[in-house]
């Protein structure tokens, strides 16, 4: 197994010797990394091999608990006054229908609070005014349609109109989040399937959650073999995925191996299995993030995660795309999942320590900024 | 009369001897109970028998003032990291029409602030965008219809569509709150009657307030004999209920006996009679909650109460359903009413001490978290 940390270290050594760069923002970032990692780096990687646990509640630990904070520091871009709007992330959430408006809002606003420059929502006409009313910070496109508002004979033309609207924008996005509050209307899901195909043709990463997972579980070809796809199933969504893909039941005793098989079977997509510990696999390795979060299980936390993973994934991809970067051998989707998981957990923990049992998702979103800042100070 | 406290004590003694469990969350909860009850337990139960009061403003006290805080501690679930979203409560409010949107919002958001994981609202199409815009935390279903938007000949088909929408969800709910901001449109109330019948068939508890009480008072068969129904009448709603069921006027001199008769007459539903002291009866016993609240009578406090009772009732039902629990002989609807009444009073008192005459319902909702935390710390 490769460890993210190994590449971090060579990365650091390199930075350390390039003293001519001492005043550049890149150097300052690396310098921060050196200070924060200190001498305890090796100790920060915990190997757990073939432990046996009697309790079925415990996740097996054949995975490697990563030093998620180091990952966050490595992929979060340094500020640079010469950058333009959009260069630190332009995210789009595809979701929001007559029934659901909170979920796409949570995902989209979380992307901004993590540090993206622009955050869009593509939703139905009914959902748009409501989502807009939650926040003037979001760009909300009322373009999706549900069956109830479309006559059978108009479906083809409306479907192509929806696609044309999305196509106007799609090349500008660094990542799409597909699913929060999408609903399960068949016509709408057909349009979203097309959007996913277009995103894939344009090599745009996609994070799939909620009803997007319902769609993908029943149409695996939409993501199969697409290395820039991330699935973020919760307990029940994971169960359906395992049943469909592996034709078996969830195995808690050997969760790591099962997740690895599942990701491999879907052609190397990255899966973030949410749970007491989050497990992340791209079919090659399995990482785990177990930072203490919150025991509160209020709805909407998954939406924060999908928006956060989208931003970190975009940032990681900028670095891994650079052949000179020491992260170039790393999978940006895995790095994005590690960072997103850890930041949500930290924010949830901060919110819970303040609001306790009454913590709601909005309280956690308010803590995203501090949880990023604590790990990776802006200046 | 049985006292909730008695079962609490045996419950505590048991926990106290099971030292092997000392590190479990359940033990920690029990341990907290022991500490909080201390030696003053017996003193916490006040018996008042056959006092006579000259003032008609004073409630008679043939009821037993309960130690509501101990009830709250006994029924509030301990946190457990292995739990999934929904396991600590999934509540639905049926209410919200063209005229009223605040009431269902207050009830639904209160459920989340008490500690439920998910809170839904089923309302009319006009009310939905407004209720959604109050908070992205709620899941708002725009499915109810009022007469003005339905042609006579379409009523049957629309009614069955409404029912089908609710039926998709109903089994997942731990409790329904029926009535906040429901309005009195006859067609809408017919649909809601059907929803109540379905809830009853599925053994889902229902808390009935506001216009739901108007409906039920005129159609007693909807709740009669259903032990999982809770009615939460205010002064006027109680008056109409007494007139209809007992064919008499409200008797302040013997409020306890009259409430007992009323609950018995409706076949053992639980009634929470709101007043200076809240009186609670299931036709077997009468409990009273007189914790100091607030003298402010701003509209909407009843909605907080209904949402809070729904959550506590759901939690109490999980415990009372367990034959090994020391609460197994208790009525979960009574426990839920006691806890909801006490928490609203505490939150109202906190809000009033800060906002005084300008206190509004939203201020009280903001204090729900602290009022639960003060009684039953989350960790």
TrEMBL record, chains A, B:
<protein>
    <recommendedName>
        <fullName>ATP-dependent (S)-NAD(P)H-hydrate dehydratase</fullName>
        <ecNumber>4.2.1.93</ecNumber>
    </recommendedName>
</protein>
<dbReference type="InterPro" id="IPR000631">
    <property type="entry name" value="CARKD"/>
</dbReference>
<keyword id="KW-0547">Nucleotide-binding</keyword>
<feature type="binding site">
    <location>
        <begin position="274"/>
        <end position="278"/>
    </location>
    <ligand>
        <name>ATP</name>
    </ligand>
</feature>
<comment type="function">
    <text>Catalyzes the dehydration of the S-form of NAD(P)HX at the expense of ATP, which is converted to ADP. Together with NAD(P)HX epimerase, which catalyzes the epimerization of the S- and R-forms, the enzyme allows the repair of both epimers of NAD(P)HX, a damaged form of NAD(P)H that is a result of enzymatic or heat-dependent hydration.</text>
</comment>
<dbReference type="Pfam" id="PF01256">
    <property type="entry name" value="Carb_kinase"/>
</dbReference>
<feature type="domain" description="YjeF C-terminal">
    <location>
        <begin position="68"/>
        <end position="375"/>
    </location>
</feature>
<feature type="binding site">
    <location>
        <position position="303"/>
    </location>
    <ligand>
        <name>(6S)-NADPHX</name>
    </ligand>
</feature>
<keyword id="KW-0456">Lyase</keyword>
<dbReference type="GO" id="GO:0005524">
    <property type="term" value="F:ATP binding"/>
</dbReference>
<dbReference type="GO" id="GO:0046496">
    <property type="term" value="P:nicotinamide nucleotide metabolic process"/>
</dbReference>
<feature type="binding site">
    <location>
        <begin position="293"/>
        <end position="302"/>
    </location>
    <ligand>
        <name>ATP</name>
    </ligand>
</feature>
<dbReference type="GO" id="GO:0047453">
    <property type="term" value="F:ATP-dependent NAD(P)H-hydrate dehydratase activity"/>
</dbReference>
<dbReference type="GO" id="GO:0110051">
    <property type="term" value="P:metabolite repair"/>
</dbReference>
<feature type="binding site">
    <location>
        <begin position="234"/>
        <end position="240"/>
    </location>
    <ligand>
        <name>(6S)-NADPHX</name>
    </ligand>
</feature>
<feature type="binding site">
    <location>
        <position position="181"/>
    </location>
    <ligand>
        <name>(6S)-NADPHX</name>
    </ligand>
</feature>
<keyword id="KW-0521">NADP</keyword>
<keyword id="KW-0597">Phosphoprotein</keyword>
<dbReference type="InterPro" id="IPR029056">
    <property type="entry name" value="Ribokinase-like"/>
</dbReference>
<comment type="similarity">
    <text>Belongs to the NnrD/CARKD family.</text>
</comment>
<keyword id="KW-0067">ATP-binding</keyword>
<keyword id="KW-0520">NAD</keyword>
